[in-house]
Amino acid sequence: MKIYLLAYNGLSAGLWLYILFQCIANIQRGYFLYKSGGDEIPHSFMLYTQIFNSLFELAHSVTGLVPSPIPTLLLQSFARLIILVGICYVIPESPANYALYTFSGLTLAWSITEIIRYGYYFLKLSQKAPASVPYSITWLRYSAFFILYPLGLVCESLTVYRSYAVIEHRLPYYSKFLKYALPLYIPGFVYLYSYMISQRRKVLKKEKAKLA
């Protein structure tokens, strides 16, 4: 199982690293490669990557392979899939999919978070003892969310909000779902943020004790 988890975390970190590089290229270019109204699903690589991660991590949690809390996992996956499936896939013509800086901000928040997270677990699994993971890496794993989570929240909310006009025209019942889902971002964010603060306090306290 250790080899499997090493492979999974290494592959996932690599996929999100590719997404990060593509995001930086888009920002430097000043536009996305695809055009609004085309047949191509915008951000399809990130869509398939997130579905892959969501399915595998849910399976890992349900089977007890990793100790991830299922409610936290479902909440984070649901928030992302609202964007990637509910907007990119269902309404690819939405202008929110092509808002360079908003969607790039969202992508930067997600990709950097996942590169750090999967990279940390890959490094942890590859060591003979967890204590051998540098404290700086552990600190980054449990501190980067202070900036990345709020950035993701703002960009995700703007993406949903800017899709309302298209959704109301094409899928009026679906627009009602999104209008109810958007306010749920706040309590969901508070829950995830509080959870990470709690985890940070617990993990860094143990790490500091090892260094003492």
From TrEMBL:
- How would you describe this protein's topology in the membrane? Multi-pass membrane protein
Q: Which GO terms describe its molecular function?
A: very-long-chain (3R)-3-hydroxyacyl-CoA dehydratase activity
Q: Where is the protein situated, by its record's location annotation?
A: Endoplasmic reticulum membrane; Membrane
Q: Does the keyword Cytoplasm apply?
A: no
Instruction: Write down the chemical reaction(s) this protein catalyses.
Output: a very-long-chain (3R)-3-hydroxyacyl-CoA = a very-long-chain (2E)-enoyl-CoA + H2O
- Entry's Gene Ontology BP terms: fatty acid elongation; sphingolipid biosynthetic process; very long-chain fatty acid biosynthetic process
Superkingdom field? Eukaryota
- Give UniProt keywords alphabetically: Endoplasmic reticulum, Fatty acid biosynthesis, Fatty acid metabolism, Lipid biosynthesis, Lipid metabolism, Lyase, Membrane, Transmembrane, Transmembrane helix
| Annotated transmembrane regions | 7-27, 98-118, 139-160, 180-198
Q: Does the keyword GTP-binding apply?
A: no
Q: Identify the EC number(s).
A: 4.2.1.134
GO annotation, cellular component aspect: endoplasmic reticulum membrane
Q: What class of enzyme is it?
A: lyase
**Pathway it belongs to?**
Lipid metabolism; fatty acid biosynthesis
Task: Please report which protein family the annotation says this sequence is part of.
Answer: Belongs to the very long-chain fatty acids dehydratase HACD family.
Provide the function of this protein.
Catalyzes the third of the four reactions of the long-chain fatty acids elongation cycle. This endoplasmic reticulum-bound enzymatic process, allows the addition of two carbons to the chain of long- and very long-chain fatty acids/VLCFAs per cycle. This enzyme catalyzes the dehydration of the 3-hydroxyacyl-CoA intermediate into trans-2,3-enoyl-CoA, within each cycle of fatty acid elongation. Thereby, it participates to the production of VLCFAs of different chain lengths that are involved in multiple biological processes as precursors of membrane lipids and lipid mediators.
Give the protein's recorded name.
Very-long-chain (3R)-3-hydroxyacyl-CoA dehydratase
Q: Write down the species.
A: Lodderomyces elongisporus (strain ATCC 11503 / CBS 2605 / JCM 1781 / NBRC 1676 / NRRL YB-4239) (Yeast)
